[in-house]
Amino acid sequence: MTPVSHLSGPGLSAPEREELAFLIDRALAEDGPDRTSAALIPAGLALAATVVSRGACTIAGLPAAAEVAARCGAAFAACCGDGDEVDGGSAVARLSGPARAVLGCERVLLNFLGRLSGIATLTRQYARALHPTPVFDTRKTTPGWRRMEKYAVRAGGGRNHRMGLDDQFLVKDNHLAALAAAAGARPISELVASMRAAAPDLRIEIEVENDADFRAAVVAGADIVMLDNWPTDAMRAAVAWLAARGARRVQVEISGGVTLARAPELAGLGADRVSVGALTHGAVWCDFSLEMEAGG
After folding, report:
1. What element of type H or E holds 273?
2. Is 140 an active-site residue?
3. Active-site hit among 107, 186, 245, 249
4. CATH number of the domain at 14-127+283-294, out of 3.90.380.10, 3.40.190.10, 3.90.1170.20, 3.40.50.10860?
């Protein structure tokens, strides 16, 4: 049983630790003091308890669980690590200490584990189905939870797309529509040149809707070209054209309409990456319980 260092799980960055601390503050504040335990449970009673998975899942959120327990005054020790796959009925962590502390942290602790493990579990399914093509998340995250949900994607074997609007250029269809409405359509080459001039160090990604725009984006020097909701045969042809061109390597990203059923088909197209918004917005919580033992 390995103790977890609070807020310092595998791959948990400083900004992620900051976001997590804020989320825990809010979660404990909204739960309020445990009046039931204060009224009924003797102050000196000690308890030990085990966090148990009710179904097979990929674990994420142990640093959060450890910190919640610590804030409430309970000791926490993990029985596995973030990214580990466990079966239903498996012991995930153990808590001990004052009964009031163990009872008081239960729901908040399980909520963090349930939400983040749900994302990691779905991500692991996509990562396996799309192998060897890596799966990336999107910005379709719960407001305020972006860094932690993206952490859970990594725990599940996925990769993070841009964190926000400021760390990469990404020209989407609505940018093009807005430009067309304002001053008429501009060639993709002009757009790429404008972005390079504005921030030379930022990567440029362009979403394209047809083969002509795909080729124009490649020739213009985009770093990544996104094929959004393209038919399979059209994507295969685009990747083949790029490979035959043989010059500067541009990454091809597949997006839109990606399901687990379709994943094996997409994995064989030779793209560099597949982005899936459902990793975060479509994940179902994993279920955990806290099983009590008398006498901590």
Report:
1. strand 273-275
2. yes
3. 107
4. 3.90.1170.20
Token pair listed for 111:
């909520």
Q: What pTM did the predictor assign?
A: 0.93
- β-strand pairing of 85-86 with 273-275: unpaired
What architecture is domain 132-281? Alpha-Beta Barrel (3.20)
- Residue in 31, 84, 209, 228 annotated catalytic: 228
Whether 106 is catalytic is no
DSSP E strands, 99-179: 135-136, 169-171
Q: Where in the chain is the domain with CATH 3.20.20.70?
A: 132-281
Given this model, what pLDDT does residue 4 score?
40
* From 18, 26, 54, 172, the catalytic residue: 172
pLDDT tier at 294 (50, 70, 90 boundaries)? low
> Is a pLDDT exceeding 90 seen at residue 1?
no
pLDDT at 241 exceeding the cut of 60: yes
207 catalytic, yes or no? Answer: yes
228 labelled catalytic: yes
Please tell me which residue in 34, 82, 106, 207 is annotated as part of the active site. 207
